Amino acid sequence: MYRAAASFCLGLTLVACAPEAPEQSELNAAVEADSEAATEATPSADTETEMAAAERPDWRIVIHGGAGVILRENLSDEQEAAYTAALETSLRAGADVLSNGGSSLDAVQAAVLTMEDDPLFNAGFGAVMTADRMHELDASIMEGSQRDAGSVAGVTRVKNPILAARAVMDQSEHVMFAGDGADSFAESVGLDMVENSHFTTDRRREALERVLDTQQRTDADRHGTVGAVAIDQNGNLASATTTGGMTAKMHGRIGDSPLIGAATYAQNGVCAVSATGHGEYFIRVGVAKTICSRVELAGEDIQSASENTLGQVADLGGDGGVIVMGGEGEYAYVFNSAGMYRGMMDADGTLETAIFEADE
After folding, report:
1. Annotated active-site residue in 225, 290, 309, 353
2. What was the pLDDT predicted at 25?
């Protein structure tokens, strides 16, 4: 189901796939039909694969800092170095948790927290602005053992939205709070609160004025979500996603990032997903849950499941990317845009980062 113009890039460490469910013959047939149609409609995906030993790593974390038209000629050496350093900081924050026996849930939270505090990324400090010249932030987090989850949407005063999402999960009976209610809840549990202007940077203010003047958004104005997926020493999966949304969005607009099953999903033994891209399309496809369902029910590996699902997004006119961690620690970055800020670190000491399409 790939769009003819879509180009997919993959960095995959393949260890094991979920077993095929014997009672899913109808779904399998439908998936096979989708795959055959995609092969006939477009060229095969541009992929690069790394093979690893067939055993689960002690732990591993994968992150992204957003996907979009990220071209080498548009980034100076200094900017590229800054993004690379920021990705490494995020990876090390998550790795510190995992290497000390911590949970994958704490690890993904720690990893995205550093990006919320870094103005390079569209999350927390440095988030994009709404058409009303405000910041409305979204975040979600999920663990794979019981599929507990928490999310917030449209918060305006929480310094770190991912902490608010975690608090919803741990300190309430609910899964999602929005708007003033989410801010009030965050304040009631003692999270750091700030003025909305705390999130503003000159770069984001200038981007807003450009969009308002031209009435046109570039891919950079739509994408910028950050996220992480991880597996810990106990084999538990987790995922986290956080964003400022799209530049000049209408007041109250909610994208895919806080929606469990759209941008964030985790299920032990199956996969964990964090997505970034044009949120309206990712919501319509239910990207994160669809990928995991393809793995669990149709027996697809995480590469095929991700490519087929992003093919549906492309067919509707959207683009973006995902990071995926499989149930045995295999991982993939898959995107149909020109680039995606991304990286991985594991218990063997391997640390990799990449930005551009051909960086694998």
Report:
1. 225
2. 46
Task: Please tell me whether 276 is known to bind a ligand.
Answer: yes
Is 135 inside a domain boundary? yes
Whether 3 has a binding-site annotation, put simply, is no
Q: In whole angstroms, give the CA distance from residue 234 to residue 112.
A: 21
Q: Is 264 annotated as a binding residue?
A: no
pLDDT band (50, 70, 90) for residue 293: very high
Residue 229 lies in a domain: yes
Domain that residue 134 falls in: 60-354
Structural domain count, the chain: 1
Active-site residue, 225 included: yes
Q: pTM of the predicted model, to two decimals?
A: 0.85
Evaluate whether residue 12 is within a structural domain. Answer: no
Residue 258 domain flag: yes
Classify each residue of 294-329 as buried b or exposed e, where b means 16 or more C-beta atoms within 10 Å of its C-beta: bbbbbbbbbbbbbbbbbbbbbbeebbbbbbbbbbbb
Separation between Cα atoms, residue 168 and residue 189, nearest integer Å: 10
Would you give the distance in Å from CA 185 to the centre of its chain? 25
Task: Confirm or deny that 256 is annotated as ligand binding.
Answer: yes
Pairing type for strands 176-178 and 149-155 reads parallel
Q: Which CATH number fits the domain that encloses residue 281? A: 3.60.20.30
Q: What is the pLDDT of residues 242-252, one digit of tens each?
A: 999 999 999 99
Residue owning tokens 């694969």? 49
**Full 3-state SS string of 138-162:** EEEEEECCCCCEEEEEEECCECCHH
